[in-house]
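EI: anyone free to look at a 264-residue chain?
SC: sure, send it
EI:
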Amino acid sequence: MKDLLDLSGIRQKLNTTIIGKEIRLFEDIDSTNREAMALGASGAKEGTVVLAESQTGGKGRLGRTWYSPKGENLYLSIILRPAILLAEAQLITVAAAVSVAETIRKATDIRPGVKWPNDILINRRKVAGILTELASGNDKVNYLVVGIGINLNMKISSAPEEIRGIAGSLKDFSGREIDRGGFLALLLSEFECYYLIFKAGERQRIMELYTGYSATIGNRIRVRSLESSIEGIACGFNREGGLLLKRDSGIIDTILAGDIEHIS
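SC: here you go
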Protein backbone atom coordinates (compact mmCIF):
# COMPACT_ATOMS: atom_id res chain seq x y z
CA MET A 1 0.00 0.00 0.00
CA LYS A 2 1.52 3.31 -1.12
CA ASP A 3 1.76 6.21 1.33
CA LEU A 4 -0.39 8.64 -0.67
CA LEU A 5 -0.33 12.31 0.22
CA ASP A 6 -3.27 13.82 2.11
CA LEU A 7 -3.76 17.54 1.46
CA SER A 8 -5.94 18.14 4.51
CA GLY A 9 -3.32 16.57 6.76
CA ILE A 10 -0.55 18.59 5.11
CA ARG A 11 -2.47 21.85 5.54
CA GLN A 12 -3.01 21.12 9.24
CA LYS A 13 0.76 20.77 9.71
CA LEU A 14 1.69 23.74 7.53
CA ASN A 15 2.64 27.00 9.24
CA THR A 16 3.32 29.46 6.42
CA THR A 17 1.96 32.79 5.20
CA ILE A 18 2.85 32.57 1.49
CA ILE A 19 4.23 29.21 0.44
CA GLY A 20 1.67 26.43 0.07
CA LYS A 21 -1.46 28.48 0.73
CA GLU A 22 -2.59 26.96 -2.56
CA ILE A 23 -1.49 23.40 -3.37
CA ARG A 24 -2.46 21.57 -6.54
CA LEU A 25 -2.00 17.83 -6.14
CA PHE A 26 -1.83 15.51 -9.15
CA GLU A 27 -1.79 11.74 -9.02
CA ASP A 28 0.20 11.54 -12.26
CA ILE A 29 1.71 14.40 -14.22
CA ASP A 30 4.26 14.92 -16.96
CA SER A 31 6.32 17.41 -14.96
CA THR A 32 5.48 19.60 -11.96
CA ASN A 33 7.82 22.28 -13.32
CA ARG A 34 6.09 22.31 -16.69
CA GLU A 35 2.68 22.64 -15.03
CA ALA A 36 3.93 25.35 -12.66
CA MET A 37 5.45 27.37 -15.52
CA ALA A 38 2.11 27.26 -17.33
CA LEU A 39 0.27 28.32 -14.16
CA GLY A 40 2.76 31.13 -13.65
CA ALA A 41 2.11 32.39 -17.16
CA SER A 42 -1.64 32.41 -16.45
CA GLY A 43 -1.25 34.48 -13.28
CA ALA A 44 -1.11 31.92 -10.45
CA LYS A 45 -0.38 33.47 -7.06
CA GLU A 46 3.09 33.53 -5.54
CA GLY A 47 3.57 30.54 -3.28
CA THR A 48 1.36 28.19 -5.30
CA VAL A 49 2.70 24.65 -5.06
CA VAL A 50 2.30 21.98 -7.73
CA LEU A 51 2.65 18.55 -6.15
CA ALA A 52 2.55 15.11 -7.78
CA GLU A 53 2.49 11.49 -6.65
CA SER A 54 4.46 10.58 -9.78
CA GLN A 55 5.90 12.17 -12.91
CA THR A 56 6.21 10.64 -16.34
CA GLY A 57 8.63 13.31 -17.54
CA GLY A 58 10.24 14.72 -14.41
CA LYS A 59 12.82 17.38 -15.32
CA GLY A 60 16.38 17.50 -14.09
CA ARG A 61 19.17 19.90 -15.04
CA LEU A 62 20.66 19.94 -18.54
CA GLY A 63 17.73 18.08 -20.06
CA ARG A 64 18.04 15.05 -17.80
CA THR A 65 14.99 13.21 -16.46
CA TRP A 66 14.13 12.75 -12.79
CA TYR A 67 13.08 9.23 -11.79
CA SER A 68 9.69 9.62 -10.11
CA PRO A 69 8.09 6.42 -8.74
CA LYS A 70 4.60 6.77 -7.30
CA GLY A 71 3.93 7.23 -3.59
CA GLU A 72 7.54 7.03 -2.43
CA ASN A 73 9.24 10.40 -2.79
CA LEU A 74 8.36 14.09 -3.13
CA TYR A 75 8.05 15.96 -6.43
CA LEU A 76 6.96 19.58 -6.23
CA SER A 77 7.33 22.97 -7.86
CA ILE A 78 6.83 26.37 -6.22
CA ILE A 79 5.78 29.51 -8.11
CA LEU A 80 7.53 32.71 -6.99
CA ARG A 81 7.24 36.33 -8.11
CA PRO A 82 10.26 38.14 -6.63
CA ALA A 83 11.02 41.64 -7.89
CA ILE A 84 14.61 40.84 -8.87
CA LEU A 85 17.00 41.09 -11.79
CA LEU A 86 18.00 38.04 -13.80
CA ALA A 87 21.48 38.20 -12.27
CA GLU A 88 19.98 37.57 -8.84
CA ALA A 89 18.00 34.46 -9.79
CA GLN A 90 20.81 32.05 -8.88
CA LEU A 91 20.35 33.06 -5.25
CA ILE A 92 16.85 31.59 -5.30
CA THR A 93 18.40 28.20 -6.07
CA VAL A 94 20.88 28.80 -3.25
CA ALA A 95 18.04 29.56 -0.82
CA ALA A 96 16.16 26.46 -1.99
CA ALA A 97 19.23 24.27 -1.47
CA VAL A 98 19.63 25.60 2.08
CA SER A 99 15.93 24.91 2.71
CA VAL A 100 16.20 21.30 1.53
CA ALA A 101 19.41 20.70 3.49
CA GLU A 102 17.92 22.17 6.67
CA THR A 103 14.75 20.09 6.27
CA ILE A 104 16.76 16.88 5.88
CA ARG A 105 18.88 17.73 8.92
CA LYS A 106 15.85 18.46 11.09
CA ALA A 107 13.82 15.47 9.88
CA THR A 108 16.56 12.83 10.03
CA ASP A 109 19.42 14.22 12.19
CA ILE A 110 21.65 13.64 9.17
CA ARG A 111 23.62 16.61 7.86
CA PRO A 112 23.72 16.48 4.04
CA GLY A 113 26.09 18.28 1.69
CA VAL A 114 25.29 20.48 -1.28
CA LYS A 115 27.11 19.86 -4.53
CA TRP A 116 27.10 23.12 -6.45
CA PRO A 117 24.73 24.33 -7.58
CA ASN A 118 21.71 22.21 -6.70
CA ASP A 119 22.39 18.57 -5.76
CA ILE A 120 21.87 17.43 -2.18
CA LEU A 121 24.17 14.57 -1.17
CA ILE A 122 24.58 12.13 1.70
CA ASN A 123 27.75 10.03 1.61
CA ARG A 124 28.27 11.25 -1.98
CA ARG A 125 24.91 9.86 -3.08
CA LYS A 126 22.29 12.21 -4.50
CA VAL A 127 19.13 12.31 -2.39
CA ALA A 128 17.60 15.51 -3.79
CA GLY A 129 17.85 17.92 -6.69
CA ILE A 130 16.59 21.39 -7.54
CA LEU A 131 15.66 22.84 -10.93
CA THR A 132 14.90 26.56 -11.20
CA GLU A 133 13.21 27.89 -14.34
CA LEU A 134 11.93 31.38 -15.06
CA ALA A 135 10.22 33.77 -17.43
CA SER A 136 11.81 37.19 -17.86
CA GLY A 137 11.76 40.47 -19.73
CA ASN A 138 14.09 43.50 -19.81
CA ASP A 139 16.62 41.72 -17.57
CA LYS A 140 13.98 41.28 -14.84
CA VAL A 141 12.31 38.13 -13.57
CA ASN A 142 8.57 38.00 -14.33
CA TYR A 143 8.02 34.81 -12.39
CA LEU A 144 10.11 31.88 -11.33
CA VAL A 145 9.52 28.19 -10.59
CA VAL A 146 11.61 26.15 -8.17
CA GLY A 147 11.28 22.41 -8.76
CA ILE A 148 12.38 20.06 -5.98
CA GLY A 149 12.69 16.29 -6.08
CA ILE A 150 13.62 14.40 -2.90
CA ASN A 151 14.16 10.66 -2.60
CA LEU A 152 12.42 9.79 0.63
CA ASN A 153 11.42 6.12 0.72
CA MET A 154 12.23 4.56 -2.64
CA LYS A 155 14.30 1.42 -2.92
CA ILE A 156 17.44 2.19 -4.88
CA SER A 157 17.51 -1.42 -6.09
CA SER A 158 14.30 -0.73 -8.02
CA ALA A 159 15.63 2.44 -9.68
CA PRO A 160 16.94 2.51 -13.26
CA GLU A 161 20.37 0.95 -13.50
CA GLU A 162 22.01 4.20 -14.63
CA ILE A 163 21.28 5.93 -11.30
CA ARG A 164 21.72 3.07 -8.82
CA GLY A 165 25.36 3.92 -8.27
CA ILE A 166 24.78 7.62 -7.63
CA ALA A 167 21.33 7.93 -5.99
CA GLY A 168 20.28 7.40 -2.41
CA SER A 169 17.16 7.78 -0.30
CA LEU A 170 16.57 9.21 3.15
CA LYS A 171 15.02 5.93 4.25
CA ASP A 172 18.26 4.12 3.41
CA PHE A 173 20.40 6.54 5.38
CA SER A 174 18.08 7.10 8.36
CA GLY A 175 16.96 3.48 8.67
CA ARG A 176 13.29 4.40 8.90
CA GLU A 177 10.29 5.29 6.77
CA ILE A 178 9.88 9.02 6.23
CA ASP A 179 6.44 10.60 6.75
CA ARG A 180 5.97 12.30 3.38
CA GLY A 181 3.26 14.72 4.48
CA GLY A 182 5.15 15.82 7.57
CA PHE A 183 8.37 16.19 5.61
CA LEU A 184 6.60 18.30 2.97
CA ALA A 185 5.07 20.62 5.57
CA LEU A 186 8.50 21.13 7.16
CA LEU A 187 10.10 21.72 3.75
CA LEU A 188 7.57 24.39 2.76
CA SER A 189 8.04 26.13 6.11
CA GLU A 190 11.83 26.10 5.73
CA PHE A 191 11.56 27.29 2.14
CA GLU A 192 9.38 30.23 3.16
CA CYS A 193 11.79 31.13 5.95
CA TYR A 194 14.77 31.43 3.61
CA TYR A 195 12.78 32.98 0.79
CA LEU A 196 11.65 35.76 3.13
CA ILE A 197 15.24 36.21 4.31
CA PHE A 198 16.23 36.57 0.65
CA LYS A 199 13.47 39.11 -0.02
CA ALA A 200 14.54 41.07 3.06
CA GLY A 201 17.97 41.54 1.45
CA GLU A 202 19.91 39.30 3.84
CA ARG A 203 21.66 37.52 0.98
CA GLN A 204 24.97 37.15 2.83
CA ARG A 205 23.26 35.13 5.58
CA ILE A 206 21.95 32.65 3.03
CA MET A 207 25.34 32.41 1.30
CA GLU A 208 27.03 31.68 4.65
CA LEU A 209 24.61 28.81 5.33
CA TYR A 210 25.03 27.52 1.78
CA THR A 211 28.82 27.60 2.13
CA GLY A 212 28.54 25.70 5.41
CA TYR A 213 26.66 22.91 3.66
CA SER A 214 28.94 22.86 0.61
CA ALA A 215 30.28 19.49 -0.49
CA THR A 216 32.14 21.20 -3.35
CA ILE A 217 34.45 23.76 -1.70
CA GLY A 218 37.99 22.43 -1.35
CA ASN A 219 37.52 19.72 -3.95
CA ARG A 220 39.28 19.43 -7.25
CA ILE A 221 36.55 19.59 -9.86
CA ARG A 222 36.00 19.49 -13.60
CA VAL A 223 33.46 21.89 -15.09
CA ARG A 224 31.97 21.07 -18.46
CA SER A 225 29.97 23.46 -20.59
CA LEU A 226 28.90 23.30 -24.23
CA GLU A 227 32.05 25.15 -25.26
CA SER A 228 34.79 23.85 -22.96
CA SER A 229 35.99 21.85 -19.97
CA ILE A 230 38.20 23.26 -17.21
CA GLU A 231 39.66 21.87 -13.99
CA GLY A 232 40.74 23.38 -10.73
CA ILE A 233 40.04 23.70 -7.02
CA ALA A 234 36.64 25.00 -5.91
CA CYS A 235 37.63 27.82 -3.57
CA GLY A 236 34.44 29.69 -2.78
CA PHE A 237 31.34 31.49 -4.07
CA ASN A 238 30.65 35.03 -5.14
CA ARG A 239 27.78 37.13 -3.78
CA GLU A 240 25.39 35.88 -6.47
CA GLY A 241 26.07 32.20 -5.81
CA GLY A 242 28.54 31.69 -8.65
CA LEU A 243 31.29 29.13 -8.04
CA LEU A 244 34.90 30.36 -7.81
CA LEU A 245 37.33 27.90 -9.40
CA LYS A 246 41.11 28.30 -9.07
CA ARG A 247 43.00 26.80 -12.00
CA ASP A 248 46.45 25.29 -11.61
CA SER A 249 47.82 28.46 -13.25
CA GLY A 250 46.41 30.51 -10.39
CA ILE A 251 43.67 32.12 -12.48
CA ILE A 252 40.30 32.24 -10.71
CA ASP A 253 37.21 31.75 -12.87
CA THR A 254 33.65 32.51 -11.83
CA ILE A 255 31.39 29.65 -12.94
CA LEU A 256 27.77 30.64 -13.39
CA ALA A 257 26.52 27.45 -15.04
CA GLY A 258 27.80 24.06 -16.11
CA ASP A 259 28.01 20.42 -15.19
CA ILE A 260 30.58 19.73 -12.50
CA GLU A 261 32.37 16.53 -11.53
CA HIS A 262 34.17 16.09 -8.23
CA ILE A 263 37.56 14.61 -9.08
CA SER A 264 38.89 14.54 -5.50
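EI: Residues 180-199 form the longest helix (20 residues).
SC: 👍
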